[in-house]
Amino acid sequence: MNKALESKIPIQLISSNIEVAKAGKIPGGKTEIPFEFPLQTKGNKVLYETYHGVFVNIQYTLRCDVKRSLLAKDLSRTCEFMVHSQPQKAKVLPTPVDFSITPDTLQNIRERNLLPKFLIRGHLDATNCVISQPLTGEVVVENSQVPIKSIELQLVRVETCGCAEGYARDATEIQNIQIAEGDVCHSLSIPIYMVFPRLFTCPTLETTNFKVEFEVNIVIVLHDDHLITENFPLKLCRI
Amino acid sequence: MAAVQWHSRGRRYEAELQRCRLEATPVDFGDYHPLKPITVTDTKSRRGARKGSTSSSSSSSSSAAPDPLSSMLDGTDPLSMFAAASAGETPGLPHSASAGDLGRKRREREEEAVGSDFEPWSAKRGEILARFTTTEKLSINLFMGSDKGKAPSPGSSAVSEKVRTRLEELDDLEEGSQRELLNLSQQDYANRIEELNQSLKEAWASDQKVKALKIVIQCSKLLSDTSVIQFYPSKFVLITDILDTFGRLVYERIWTMCSDPRPLPESFSADDVNDTAKETCLNWFFKIASIRELIPRLYVEAAILKCNRFLNKSGIQETLPRLTAMIRGIGDPLVAAYARAYLCRVGMEVAPHLKDSLNRNFFDLLGTFRQIQGDSVQNQLVLQRVEIPEYLTLYSPAINWILQCIAYRAPEPLLTEMMERCKKLGNNALLLNSVMWAFRAEFVAARATDFITMIKDCDEAGFPKHLLFGSLGRSLACADPPEAERLPILNEAWKVITKVRSPQDYINCAEIWVEFTCRHFTKREVNTVLADIIKHMTPDRAFEDAYPQLQSVIRKILTYFHDFSVLFSMERFLPFLDMFQKDSVRVEVCRSIMEVFIKHQLEPTRDPVILNAMLHICKTMHDSVNALTLEDEKRSLALLINGFIRMVSFGRDFEQQLSFCVEARATFCNLEPVLVQLIHTVNQLAMETRRVMRGSHSRKTAAFVRACAAYSFITIPSLSSIFCRLSLYLLSGQVALANQCLSQADAFLKAAVSLLPEVPRSISVEGKLRPSEGFLLDFISNFLSTLLVVPDHPEHGVLYLVRGLLNMVQDYTWEDNGDAKLRVYINALPLLAAMSQEAYLYCIPRVDSNETLYGGDPKFLSEINKLCETLIGQVLDHLKALGRDESVRRQAALAFSLFGCLLAHGDLRNNKLNQLAVNLWNLSHKHGHCDTRASVRTLEFMKHQAQQPDMAHLSDTVQRLALQSRT
Predict the structure, then answer these.
(1) Do B286 and A198 make contact, defined as CB atoms within 8 angstroms?
(2) InterPro entries in the record, alphabetically (chain A) (predicted)?
(3) How far is residue B613's CA from residue B617's CA, in Å, rounded to a whole number?
(4) Could you read off the pLDDT of B557-581 as tens digits, one per residue?
(5) Which fold has domain A97-237?
C-alpha cells in the first residue's frame, strides 16, 4: 500500500477499500469469503515490484477489518503480498564489456611504484542482465608478478533517495562469490558465473524520488594482500 | 540247562551256491532284456540323442514290458539331461544372466549405464586409502556456520544486514561454531570424518537441512587444504564419501516428494515432477550457488548433479561443462586434479554418455600441467619437505581415474590422440604412467616398444621409472605384445628394473614382470629373473619386508609352470624358496606349491629332482606342526603330503619304493594320517609284488614282502587311534597271509588280539564321545571271518587265535546293560561251524588252512564242538539271567538270534540240538516281543529248506514251532 522512506513519511502508491461481506451474522464454524479487486494506482503513480532494502522498502499490505457491534472490539489482521512487475516487452541488449587491468589502469592508489606488475584481462557477456539468468563472462590472468590469492565477484546494491537534505546513497554487498582460489594458471580463462540471489535483487529501479541500482566488482586479492577491484554497473531487468 | 552237544551242519558250499543261483538263460541279441536297451542306446546314439524313449534303437524291444527305470524317467535320463544342460548352457548361462543384469542396471540408471567391465570407484577406494598414508599430525578446521557469504536466511528481510550478521553469530555460538582439531593421527582423522558423515545423516534425518548443508560445505572446504600433502588422496576419498552421501540424500528426498500418488518411473522426465518438488530442488541449487568459496561450491554442486534431472532435460548436459570450466579457478594443481576426478566420477555415474566434458577435463588438466614446475608448488614442496617424485605419485589416482573414464569403451583413434598429446607434453612420465594404467591393456601391449622408448626418454628426476615399468608390466600381464617384440621388451625392462636401488621398489616392479616372463618365456628366462630377485632381496635380509610380493611371484610361476620336473630344474627355484624364512609364510608357500602339484601332477613320478624338492617342501610343512597346531591344520597338511606320497612310484623298482617309504616315515613321523597312508602304500606294494610274481614268490621277493610286513608291524604301534591300529593290523595280517608270510600274519593278528583289551568304552568321533561298542563288534566280526583261513601255529594249541580272541572278549569290560559279549559268541558259532567243514568256504592260494592241516581230524572237530558248547552254554546262562532281570525284550532278541544261528549252522537232526532250537523259539515268542514278520519269514525259509535232500527233518521241526498270534 505504501512505499516507506527511512526518515520520511511513507508515500502511498495505492489505496482502495472494498466491502467483502454485508452486515449480518456469520454462522459458527469456518466461513470462507472470496474477494478480488484490481490494483489501481493513486493518481499518476507507478506500481513498483516488491522490494526490501535498507533505505528503500516497497511493500504492499492487505488489511482486513471486521466491524462488530458496540460491545465487542473490532477485529483486524494485516498481511503482506508480493508484486512482480510485468516482464518488459522490449528486447534487452546484452551490451558486453571487455576489460583489462594493469597497474596503470588503477585509480585511487597511494604509491604506484610499489605495485607489482600484472596484466589481467577479461570480459562480461552482458551488463544488461536478465535477473533470472546468471551473470557470465571470463577473466584471464595473463601474468602477475605476485601470486594471486583469490578472485571474487562482489554484487553490490546501491540505493539512492532524494530527501530534504539532498541525496542519501548507500551501497550494500549482497553477495560475494569466489571464482578463483590460489595461484591460478596463467593465460587460462576462468569463468565468471554468478546467479543473482532471489530475495535481494530486483530489476533496476529509477524513479524521481529514489533509485535502486546494482554493480558488480571483480576483486583480485594478491598474495601480499593487495586488493585490486574493477567495478561494473549492471542493469537488471525481468523478462 | 545241561551242556548241549554241538554238531555242525555239514555244508557243500558249491552245491548251495549253485542252488541259490537263478537259472542262467542266455539272451539272444534280439531278445528283450530290461537292462539291455539302455546299454544299446548308449552305444548307438552319440550325444544328446539319449532323450526320447530308449526303445527307438533296439527294434524288437520294449512294447510288452517297458523298462521300469526308463519309464520312470519319462523318457529323459536326468543325468544326461544335466550333462546336456551343462554342455549346452555353459556359455549360454552367464550370457543370459548378464543380459538380465544389464537390463536391471539399465532400469536403475536410465541411459546406457556403465557396464560391469568398468572398474568402479569403490574398487579404487581401499587401494588409495592404503597407499597414501602419513605419520604426520593432521588438523580439521571447521567453521560451523560462520561462512558469512552463505545463503542469507530468507524471511529476515526486515532486519538490517548488521543485525542479521550478529544474530547469525549467536546461532553459531550455540552450535559450537568454530572447532579446530589439531594433532590428529591419520586414524583419528578418518574417524572424525566418519563422525561428520554420521552427523550429516542425523541432521538430515531430524530435518535440519541447513545444518546438513553446513556440514557438507565445511567438509568440502577441507579439500582446499593441502598441508600434509602426502595424505591428500586419502583425504579426498574420505570426504567425497560424505559428498556422495549428501548427494544421495538430496536426490532421494526430492524423489519421495514426487512419489505421491505413485512413485516416479525410473526413466522419468522433468515433466513428471510436481511443482513443489521442482521448487525444493531449485532452492537447493540457489543455496549452493551462493556458497562463497569456490571449492565447496564446486563440490557440493557436483554432488547433487543428478538432481538436475528433476528440473529439465538438458540440465546435466549444461552443468557438466560449466563445472569443468569452474575448476580452472582452482590454483593448486593437485586440488584441481582431484576436483576433476570427482567431477568425472559423478559424471560417469549420472551421465556416462556425456564424454565431451570428460575429454575437456583431461585437456584442461594437460593445460595446467606446467603449474607443477611453478613457484607456488615448488615452494610448498620445500616447506613440506616432499620430493618431486613422491609429489607426482600423488596425482596418479586422480589422473588414472580420469583416463579410465575417458578410455572406457573409447574408440582407438581417441586413445591414440590422447597418447600423442601426452607425448607432446615433453614425455611427461606422470601422464604416461596413467595412460598405461587406464587404457586398455591390448592397446598398451600393441605399442609396448613405443612405450619403452618413451619411458626411457623421461626425465630421471621426475616420476620414478620403476613405477612406469610397473604400470607397463601390469598391462603386458593381461595382453600380449607382438611375438617378435617380446624378448627385446623383457630385456629393456629388466635392464631398468635391475638398477632400482630400493629393495621395496625393486620387488614391487619385479613381481609384476614375473607374470610377463612366465607367460611368454621358458624356464631359462624365469630362472634368470629369479636369480636377479634373489640377488636384490638377500642383502640386509630385505626379503623380510617383501613376503607378499615374493609369495605373489611364486603364485605367478605356479600358474604358468605345471610341469614340476621343469619347475624344479630351475636352479634358483629352491634358493628362492629359502628366502621365505618366516615360518607361517614358508608353510603357506609350500602349501600353495603342493596344491598345484596335486592338481596338475597326474602321472606318478620317480623323477629324483621332483622327489627331492617335494620331500623338502613336504618336510617344511611337516616341521611346522607343533603342539599348538590345530587339528584342522594338521589334517589339511597331512592331506597334501598324502597327495604327494600317492604320486610317487618307482615302477618295478619295489625296493626303492620301500626305502622311500622308510625315509618318508622318518620325515613325517608327526602326522598320523601320513603314517597310515604309508602303511597302505607298503601293503599295496606287497600285493603288487605278489601280482607281478603271479602269487609264487622267489626267495628274493619273499624276503621283500617280509620286509614290507616288518615295515607295517613297526609303524602301526606309533599310531594313537586304536581302531586305526586294529584295522591296520588286520589288513596287514591279511596282506601278509596273502603273501604266504605265515608267522608275520600270526604276529599281526596276535597283536590285534592283544590290543583288544585296550579299546576304551567310548571314543571321540568328530569331537563327540560315542560308545565304541558298535565299532568293536564290527571289527571282531571282520576279524573272525579272517580267522577261518589262518592256519594254526604248530607250537600253540588248536584254534589258538580263536581261543585267544574269545578269552579277550570274555575279559573285556563291556557295557553293563548290553549283550555285546553274547553277540560276539553267537557270531563265533558260524566261524566254528565253517571250520568244521571238509572243504572251507574260501581259502588263500598257496596257504594251507586248517582244513588241510588237520584233514578233518576227529580230535580237531571235537575241539571245535567243545568250544561251541561252551559258547552256547554261556549264552544260555545269560538268557536265564535276563529272564530273572525281567529284561524280556533283550532275552527274546538274543534267543532269536541264537535260534537263527542254530538253524543255519547246527545239525538239527540231532535231537538235543533240535530240542534246544525249539526251546529258543518258544523263549523268544514267550513274551510277545518278537518281530512277527521275521518269524513268518523264518518259517517259510525252513519250509523251503525242508524240500532239500538231507533237510527233511526240518519239516518236523516246523510243526513244533508255534507262531504266536498277535495280541
Answers:
(1) yes
(2) Arrestin-like_C (IPR014752), Vps26-related (IPR028934)
(3) 6
(4) 999 988 888 889 888 998 999 899 8
(5) Immunoglobulin-like (2.60.40)
